[in-house]
Amino acid sequence: MPDVIADLALIDATALADRVSMADAIRAVGEVLRGDFDPEDDLPRTILDVPHGQLLLMPAAFGGMVGQKLASVAPGNPARGRERIQGVYIVLDGVTLAPIAVLDGTALTALRTPAVSAAAVDVLAGSAAGDLVVFGAGPQAVRHVQALSTIRSLRTVRMVGRDAARTAAAVAEVQALVPAAAVGVGSVRDLVTADLIVCATTATDPLFPADAVRTDAVVVAIGSHERDKAELPAALLGRGQVVVESRRVAATEAGDVIRAVEAGALRPEDLVTMHELFTGDVSPARDRPRIVKTCGMGWQDLAVAARAVGTGAER
Q: Best label site of 92, 219, 237, 300, fewest CB within 10 Å?
């Protein structure tokens, strides 16, 4: 009998970074969205409440591989010096369903989430977009700057956070990532010049008024997958083109979308999926803000994990 554990490829955070760059991850996401796989058909994930947080089980199957992420969300982790999201990811052969690799799920999430955002922004934003405002000061806020700097030449980056020390630390990290950009601490007032906006917070209510966002701006909201939380005002979704990963997921997990629909500001049929956007079935709007609301889906992990496993010597 084969030794399954001995045969597994173990890909830690360092190995993942060596095998898959941010640009690679963005390309991997785009290739899936332009292909035959429709995220509406992604396997459903399970979210369970556990002591001190949530447990997420996120399966996916396409492209000859199967993947499963066991992730957790622990809101108290930042105070403990750990990331909110923890996890491991297992890749299985699509035919035998034998495990072939185990990846650091925390590092995978930190890579694929901004890669998904950047892939969408690359389609939606004008080529000259380069003034970015980021709400949030955690790892995802910083990684989103890295991802967006991969697809656009950033001129300015303003980080907006509630904790002064954490925001200053995030600014220092971003300065190292994008030395050519003017980086600093920002505020809601900076939205007047922002053509790119990222919301990566744990906020339960909107971070800024709807009329603060320019007509030509692209907004990304990734902070929550809970129906009772929203980073964006309903009126903003009502005046924008709203792009989601999946209508099914948006209707059950995207608090920003759910609130806007309940307020009568947005109709479910007006939502655009990423698959429709990438296949050209729907074109980016040019007369209103473009809004990307994501909750995270299993196919995104597998798209990047497959790239990591496929470039390894063991394959």
A: 92
pLDDT in tens, 205-240: 999 999 999 999 999 999 988 888 999 999 999 999
Whole-angstrom distance, CA of residue 178 vs CA of residue 181: 6
- Angular region, 65: left φ>0, alpha ψ -120 to 50, beta rest: beta
Residue 137, C-beta contacts closer than 8 angstroms, at least 6 positions apart: 159, 161, 162, 163, 166, 167, 169, 170
Q: Which of 230-244, 251-265, 299-313 has the lowest mean pLDDT?
A: 299-313
Distance (Å, rounded) from C-alpha 115 to C-alpha 123? 13
* CB of 9 closer than 8 Å to CB of 102: yes
Residues in the chain, total? 315
Please compute the mean of the pLDDT values over residues 27-49 and round it to a whole number. Answer: 93
- Residue 87 is classified by DSSP as E
The closest alpha carbon to 119, from 201, 32, 249, belongs to: 32
Q: Spell out a b/e string for 219-238, using b for 16 or more CB atoms within 10 Å of the CB, else e.
A: bbbbbbbbbebbbbbbbbbb
